[in-house]
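tool_call predict_complex ligand=erythose-4-phosphate
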Amino acid sequence: MKFYVDTADVEEIRELSETGLLDGVTTNPSLIAKSNRNVFEVLAEICDLVDGPVSGEVTATDRDGMVTEGRRLHEVSENVMVKVPLTWEGLKACRILNQAGIQVNVTLCFSANQAVLAAKAGATVVSPFVGRLDDIGQDGMALIHDIRLVFDNYQELSTEILVASIRHPMHVLEAAKIGADICTVPPQVLRALATHPLTDTGLEAFLEDWKKTGQNILGET
Ligand code: E4P
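tool_result ok
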């Protein structure tokens, strides 16, 4: 499973990228707004830090506008994957950008039928939003299951499933069990994946016992 981090906070990305665990980054207009920074500067800095796809989202809503914006975002770096919404116009833009050799992330996917259309339009990845479905009382993970099932029925659909709108570690585990290709995870959830109370108490006990020995691995006893 590949891990992307879902943020436009460059300092967070810098810190997380030191683990070597980041395979990519996703941003969206809301995350850029939250950063209070220029979209091109943010994308350029992220591309310098992470050696993988960095999603930057268009804000036009018509095909030609999306294509023009997508090309402009892609000028920042080869790593920029252009994000377009899963609308009829977005699907048309996806096809054109894909034919131009630009990677496309089709976002705001809420049904398996939408995912199939994105795949047929040449999406590199499709982003189903699990948390937002859970928020309205639907089963976000059931959607991931359905998309995996359908994509596996048709080998010609090579689009990867990028699980988005992840809220907690159980979403990541469930996505991995289903066999989703990528999870884009908020920084705090990514950190939570590495923590366990028994790890903390276990380490504390080891260090207490070690102190009693009076030894020092790097120095004299
Ligand atoms: C994915 O690319 C989106 O940026 C993101 O996962 C949306 O998550 P949210 O529902 O928490 O805003």
